[in-house]
Amino acid sequence: MQGFGAILGEAVGLILAGDPDLAEIILLSLQVTLSAVVLACVIGLPLGAVAGAFRFPGRSIFIIFLNALMGLPPVVVGLFVYLMLSASGPLGALELLYTPGAMIVAQTILVAPIVAALTRQVVEDLHSEYAEQFASLGIGPVDRVAALLWDARYSLLTVALAGFGRAVAEVGAVIIVGGNINHATRVMTTAIALETSKGNLQLALALGVVLLAIAFVINATVFALRASAARSAFA
What we know:
mainly alpha
């Protein structure tokens, strides 16, 4: 049994050598995760903004429901999407099961409530500052939502980051709907689980290192953008 230092050295060697299997898994992971986050933002940002900026019948229940969806169990979402996309399901004709498309659908369902709920809180806090100004200028609902989203854009980057973190670390749902098929639907998290069970700790650790590096880079980028925005505001 190799020691941790030796395994880590071989893992770093795989990364530096540009191992093709490693690169394929990383690229597919990024493709699936980024696609899901973009779709979740397209759904969740306006939904959360409307809930944060306006009062309407049933709003409290809607917010409670939205917050509850943030804790959706991934395996339940995976099972639901599987049933929808299976040959006997209502969307079986699309033939998406065991494809990256099915994984994107599952991750979008998991991430969209997070984006919507966090956006609602950001926009609600911001709207309380601008409500009187919006009313005095007679700004309509669509323009109001657009203005709030634009003004909160740096805070919403953090919201998107939270969604990305949820999606990129997901295992249960993507295994169910993707099948963890080599050269087809194998992503970083499912590959780590598989390679660890097989005893291929070098590849598993290499993927873990890359996963941590991606999280660090994204966090650093968002921090830099927010710092830049703060400096601009005080300039």
